[in-house]
Every structure is written in structure tokens, then in C-alpha cells.
Amino acid sequence: MSLPRILCCAAVVSAALGMATTELAAQTPGFSGNSVKIGVLTDMSSINAHMGGPGAVTAVQLAIEDAGPIGVPVEMVSADHQAKPDVGASIARKWYENDGVDMITELTNSAVALAVQNLARSLKKVDLVTGGVADDLVGKSCSPWGIHWTFDTFSLANGTTRTVVQQGGKKWFFITADYAFGHAMEARATAVIKAMGGTVVGGARVPQGTADLSSYLLQAQASGAEVIALANAGTDFATAVKQANEFGITQSGKRLVATIIFIPEIDSIGLESAQGLALTTNFYWDRDEASRAFATRFTARAGRDVVPTEPQAAVYSATLHYLKAVKAAGTDDATAVIAKMKEIPIEDFFARNASIREDGVLVHDLLLLQVKTPAESKKRWDYYKVLSTISGKDAFLPLSESTCPHVKKG
Questions:
Q1: Are 263 and 311 spatial neighbours (Cβ–Cβ below 8 Å)?
Q2: Mean confidence (pLDDT) of the chain
Q3: Of 232, 254, 281, which residue is a domain's last?
Q4: Which end of the chain is more exposed for a tag (fewer CB within 10 A), N or C?
Q5: Beta strands, E only, 183-277
Q6: Which domain does 239 fall in, by range?
Q7: What sign has the CA pseudo-torsion 249, 252, 254, 256?
Q8: Are strands 146-148 and 171-177 parallel, antiparallel or unpaired?
Q9: How many domains are contained in the chain?
């Protein structure tokens, strides 16, 4: 397998510091290989490529540039995990053990993220997950050297699901992606529904990449459910919404709920079909001046009419904070860097009121959004309105309930 390697020239700081290589090496004894090397392991070719993919590489490049000189060169490599845990783990092992990679990030696809984090934990290496959302990443599969930089299945369920039940959606049917994320999302949402007096009247597990969802949608329509929850993501989600509209399901009074959704899916589906969908997220490019400024730079670097997704914004935030911690620690040692990441304040256009907990959760504020109607939208990508902010302390599983093995109890 060919692993593309990118040397981020803007981040190679030895020349800027006017040092010869031998002089730099002599002054940086805390750095293995006399550099910091970041691996962006993402989905370049499967259903979630638009969420991470080349855009994640762009975001990391921007973060490296914005970090400025840290005392040693910063390098970046990237690769496609193909949404396959074995492929992702194989690439990660080569990077960590043979290629001198200090930190791996992005990891869209929860099964891949879990596989890589399990490997990273065994090797005592840093992984910063900005794509995968299964809460096992900070639960039973947590790592002292792993940080989850985005929302998880608990926070997603605690936001959107709770809101829909409060609005009267008591009977639910799940169309669930048959892999780690879908299973975790359905389990968390089901717990919220039942705790609030609702019921789950049925469900269907759907293989990733299924093009024809008609049998599952008709089953949901006949179930008596008031709410049809789509516990899937990427193009699978877009397909489900489009076909639900074709079958007249939403027109019949059933409510479609997105357990996770990203702005490229809204663009693909169109506002006519997606209008009114509620969602929980942690980044919207048009939220305020800071988010718009990042989006403008991102779009210019991407060279096409796109805006950053949540995982792309998250991987920028995580990488920049990692490099700040490396500089402050004066080393790329995983334990020292993670300690410094937890110590240094975090506040940027992505991570609002943020802090890193003992279990690796980046606790931060989330947003409850609603998809605009066609009449409300003024231009392409003007797709959301902010309904409310969910504070981090309310959004994420309490530390006292954590199943992370290295969290101190009592």
C-alpha cells in the first residue's frame, strides 16, 4: 500500500531559526528523530470521505502553519484507512513503529478509531480522535494517551433525542448502520428514550453502503412509530432521507431524526427534503466571526466551494493544541505532551469552554441546530439556525459514570 507523505514546508522551522541540522539536534534532546511527525489517518474513498478526507489534511496543514516554530521540524503524513479497521491498524502500526509518527489523528469511522486507539495504547502513543464518535473511545476502550476531540454517541443522544422526546416524539423506530457507531448510537438514544417514558417499537440493522433502503423504510412506516431515527452517517444518511421523501414517509406525518449529520449531506439532500431536521453538533461554519474566518481560509486552501465540516474543524483544533503542548513540554514524549495538553487552556472557534478530562473527553459546549427552510436560506451553505447552546457539563457523560479503566473512582 502506498502511504502518501507530505512534508509541510511552512512548518519546518530549522531554517527560520537559522540553525544547521547538527545545531538543531544538539539543542532538542527531547525529540525522537529530531522532529514531530503527525499522521492523518482518514477516509479518502468511502462513505465518509467528505467529512474528513482531503479536507482533514487541509485543516492539519493550516494548524501546523498557525502553530509556528516549535523548536524542531513538523512533518505530516496522510493515508486512507478505507473504512476498514484492519487496514487502519496496519497503517498505524507502520507509522508508529517504523516511520517515527508521534501522533495520529482524524480517524473518521468508529471501528477504525477503536482499532487504532487500542494499538496506540499498547505502544504508549498519542491518538487524537476527531472523526469517530463511539463513546467506548472514552469508556471501556479509553487510553491514557488518547483524547476524543468531538461529540460522542452519549452527547448526541443527550441533545437531539432528548429534545425530540420532550416535543412529543414517544414511539421510535431505528434504522441503524450495522457497525460500531450505529450500534453505540442506537443504544445511547434508546436509553434516553426509555428514561423519558418513550418506547422503541422496532428497528433494522443496515449494512454500510446499502443503496436501496426501501424495505427498511417501509418496515419503519408500518411499525406505528412517530419518529424514525437514522442512526447512520455520510452518504448512507443522505440516501435514507432522499428515499424517505420518495416514499412519502415524512409527508405522512412521521418525523425523521438525524442522530448525526454533517453539512455536506444537507447540501446533497437539498433543503426541500432536509428542512426542519434537528441536530446536535459542535461546529457550524457560519456561527460567528471566528468560525467564518476559519471557513474562509479553509475554502481558499481547498480551492473549491466547500465549507469545513465538524471533523475538519476538530482536527485543526486538536492538532494546533497538540503542537502548543509539544512546544510547552519541550518534548514529543507522549505522557509529557498529554499532561501538558490537559494543563494548557483551550478556547478556539471549535472548542468553546473546553477542558480535557481524566478519561480523555474534551468537554466543550455543543449546539442544537435546525435545518433552514429553502426560504430562510440566503445562499449555498447557509443551512442552519442555532436553537440553543448545550453546556459541556450537560452534554457529556458525567465522569462519575465513566467506564474508563484508568479513571480514579471514589
A1: no
A2: 90
A3: 281
A4: C
A5: 199-206, 227-231, 255-258
A6: 154-281
A7: positive
A8: unpaired
A9: 2
Backbone angles phi, psi at 296, to 5 degrees: -65, -45
Q: What is the model's pLDDT at position 24?
A: 37
Q: What confidence score (pLDDT) does residue 410 get?
A: 57
138 and 158, same domain (yes or no) = no
* 276 and 301 share one domain: no
Residue 22 maps to a domain: no
Q: Is residue 393 part of a domain?
A: no
Q: What is the largest CA-CA distance in the chain?
A: 73
Flag whether 260 is in a domain.
yes
Which of left, alpha, beta for 100 (phi over 0: left; psi -120 to 50: alpha)?
A: left
Encoded amino acid at 118, one letter: N
For the chain, percent of residues with pLDDT exceeding 70: 92
| Whether 365 contacts 378, CB under 8 Å | no
Length of the chain: 410
pLDDT at 45 > cutoff 60: yes
Per the structure block, which three cell numbers stand in for 64? 501546523
C-alpha cell at 368: 442544537
**Burial class, 343, CB count within 10 angstroms (exposed 0-12 / middle 13-18 / buried 19+):** exposed
The alpha carbon of 62 is separated from its chain's Cα centroid by a whole number of angstroms, namely 18
Share of the chain above pLDDT 90, in %: 77
For 207, list phi and psi in degrees, rounded to 5: -60, 145
Tell me the per-residue pLDDT of 273-332, one tens digit each, with 9 for 90 and over: 898 888 899 999 999 999 999 999 999 999 999 999 999 999 999 999 999 999 999 999
C-alpha 59: how far from chain center: 13
Residues 210 and 230 reside in one and the same domain: yes
The average pLDDT across 224-247 equals: 90
More confident call, 139 vs 253: 139
Residue 48: per-residue pLDDT: 87
CATH number where 212 lies: 3.40.50.2300
**Closest among 198, 203, 144, 153 to 360, alpha carbons compared:** 144
How distant, in Å, are the alpha carbons of 143, 207, 229, 407 from that of 136? Answer: 10, 21, 21, 14
Q: How many whole angstroms separate alpha carbon 98 and alpha carbon 3?
A: 13
Q: Among residues 249, 281, 313, which one ends one of the domains?
A: 281
Q: Based on the fold, state whether residues 214 and 66 are members of the same structural domain.
A: no
Q: Are residues 116 and 42 in the same domain?
A: yes
3-state secondary structure of 109: coil
341 lies in some domain:
yes
Rounded (to 5) percent helix, strand, coil in the chain: 40, 20, 40
